[in-house]
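Figure caption, in words: inputs first, then the predicted bound structure.
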Amino acid sequence: MRSDPSVHGRLRTVALPDGETVPALGQGTWNMAERPDRRNDEIAALRIGVDLGMTVIDTAEMYGRGAAEALVGEALGNRRPEIFLVSKVLPHHATRRGTVSACEASLRRLKTDHLDLYLLHWREGVPLDETIEAFEMLKQAGKIRRWGVSNFDVADLEDADSLSDARRMATNQVLYNLKRRGIEFDVLPWCHERGIPIMAYSPLEQGQLVEHRTVMSIARRLEATPAQIALAWILRREAVIAIPKSSSPNRVRENRGALDIELGDDDLQVLDKAFPPPRRKVPLQMI
Ligand code: NDP
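Bound structure (NDP present):
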């Protein structure tokens, strides 16, 4: 397994549309703060990840109904300047006023005065212009540095684009991993053409990819682990940020090692055969 906790150097970075750069590998927090017996490990895992440079921390008001944000606040409150903090507003809160109150509640739980990035978790009934207006208000007030979207297919991105200058959208956080390649057909090119990075969620397909035969066999050959192969496959792309979640400090170290793996053309061909790229439009999938 490739993991060297002594590697503290800066990770490869991805540029956001406003010029800010963030590490290409971060950490997710969904399902954290659900089990008291794992709490200490979760806190340690987040801190170790930050030590290793995985400073993009993705959370949401939805996760554990605020409990994941509170855990992040506890784990990283005193390391706030080091981290790039991302949270999300639930669609049914995403009205002009609701977005502002949801953000303020997230800030309180996270024990901070601002978010680096605030996302609309997914699109539902509230008109998008209301949410974007609220995001702009929060930005003016210094409560968020920038905003973005999540689970937006091309039609949604076009709508957001028509309501605001697309360059003001900092990211589109979407499901992307070896098994879920649909975005390669259109969402990924749409965002790349406009300089908007993608944030790949569930990069391990919620852990399932580590048991896939092809991924396991490439891992054996490269003396890596299956999780590292699945992450390295995502990280080889420019302008994509991966946010694997692990509540285990050792697995966080392991995931960090993915950045040191280079997949060769032959590996990529084998993976393409096992997980074919899309040949036509596939409606955006969500978890
Ligand atoms: P991931 O693909 O990151 O997989 C997480 C699972 O994989 C956990 O069960 C974890 O277990 C396991 N795992 C992690 N590392 C390893 C490893 N090295 N070897 C074996 N198993 C491993 O799934 P998520 O759905 O959590 O996605 C990541 C993050 O993306 C979320 O936590 C969340 O922040 C975000 N997200 C956003 C969504 C959106 O709608 N915007 C939707 C879904 C996710 P363990 O913790 O026990 O190590």
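The chain has one domain: 21-274.
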